[in-house]
Amino acid sequence: MNEVILQSLGAAETVTGSKHLLKTPELNILIDCGLFQGIKSLREQNWQSLGISPNEIDLIILTHAHLDHCGYIPLLVKKGFKGSIYMTRPTSELAELILLDSAKLQEEDAENANKHKYTKHHPAKPLYTSEDAIASFKYFKPQECNVLIRLSDHIHFRFKTCGHILGACSVELTCFEKIIIFSGDIGRPHSVILPAPDYFTAADYVIMESTYGDRLHGDHNYYDELAEMINKTIAQRGNVLIPSFAVGRAQELIYVLNFLKEQRMIPFDLPIIMDSPMAASATRISLRYADEYMSISNEKFMEMNRHVTINQDYNNTLGFIKDKHSKIVIAASGMLSGGRVLEYLKHYVGDSRNTVLIIGFQAEGTRGRALINKSHEVKIHGKYYAVNAKVSEIEGLSAHADQRELMNWIRKFEKPPKQILLVHGEPCAQEALRVKIQTELALPVKIMKQNQDVLLFTCDNYVVTPV
């Protein structure tokens, strides 16, 4: 074989399950190894065969620690993968945290499904267990950014920070003298706690995310918008519930809410509860890496956390729910797919005085998407709950670059890529971005299809060494 072929095993015409397989004459490299989330037809793919034996994959390069990028790792290891998994140091710590939480939630969901008999499977089983997650950690190989890592005679790569969350990176992979860029999830240029995404000036092929390929986050001041929403809610003695990804969004929210208090834009004594053991742990990890990977100092990060009650004990959760005083609750998960946020949602969503604030992307089929689409009810643990609370969305707090920011990222290339391949986006977003790139930049763009082989190039002078 003298061909270099790209195959998307996930995140092709959808925003979830990121797995991009680069098949080369020397190595089979998997960029990201995420779980499918959202609608049932997507989640069911987690249980299906990958189409390649795990022991045929030589290594994994992980762009960041969100579940849709790392959540399949324990299952791949369980099925026989034994290669190295490269990532940055913060990503390594955060991925361990997220994978243990994922396993725990799956174990709890299976237990609840069996207990309350809302499953078609008898018995329901978790996709993987905590022991499976722990078994995968020995393959983690943390690396520094901007350092070339040699993988074989003709392949090396390096990480470049891309914003989005702590430790998140794009990947520049040099393969048989061709440069292949995997963007990962590109962050915002004006994050309040993370530096702007780094960029590349040359590439032959770019595999690029397109989550917000059809949308702009707007230029309005989200500080004012957020303060107004909070003040209106507490004026009617309601609570503000913010479903948030425990890694990334929760830490940025703490900064923003602390700023609003300091500026007296919201009451200084308004309780802020961050109810997520994982967010608490992610915050501690962030503190360790603040000076190196964040745009605010360790001291500033510590100071802003003093204004937040961080809860890890579920018994306290019940107490916060029963407390009738107005408060802001930040709880995972960000798409309302599981976790403690569901306990709050059960009690808050039926009360018109409360507000559910959506601040991140909500995948198709999630409760978060249902709320944005003005569903009159949501199903939680087999029971329906009427939606009477106000549902608000502030796009300016998103961790994903919008269409304009994605276009600006592409414009940094001084040498035009031979081809851009779009992944990690829903069809309408991908088509809008495809047309935008082709119209304004005259670059060839392809939208990846799941499991479709795309020939990037051939290594004409490569000779296979006999074993």
Give a description of the structure:
This protein is an alpha/beta fold and 467 residues long. It folds into 2 domains: 273 residues, 4-Layer Sandwich (Metallo-beta-lactamase, Chain A); 176 residues, Rossmann fold (3-Layer(aba) Sandwich), CATH 3.40.50. 32% of the residues lie in helices and 22% in strands. The protein has 14 helices and 22 strands. A 7-stranded mixed beta sheet has the order 6-5-4-3-2-1-22. A 7-stranded mixed beta sheet has the order 7-8-9-10-11-20-21, covered by helices on one side. A 6-stranded parallel beta sheet has the order 14-13-15-12-16-19, with helices on both faces. Helix 4 runs antiparallel to helix 8. The two termini are 15 Å apart.
Query: What coarse outline follows from CA principal-axis ratios?
Result: globular
Radius of gyration: 22 Å
CATH superfamily of the largest domain: Ribonuclease Z/Hydroxyacylglutathione hydrolase-like
Helix fraction bin: 25-40%
How large a portion of the residues is in β-strands, by DSSP E?
15-25%
How many discrete domains? 2
How many DSSP-defined strands? Answer: 22
Instruction: Assign the CATH class of the largest domain.
Output: Alpha Beta
Terminal residue distance: 15 Å
The CATH topology annotation of the largest domain reads as Metallo-beta-lactamase, Chain A
Strand order of the largest sheet: 6-5-4-3-2-1-22
CATH architecture of the largest domain: 4-Layer Sandwich
**What does the average pLDDT come to?**
92
Main β-sheet description: 7 strands, mixed
**Contiguous uncertain segments of 5+ residues:** none
Helix run count: 14
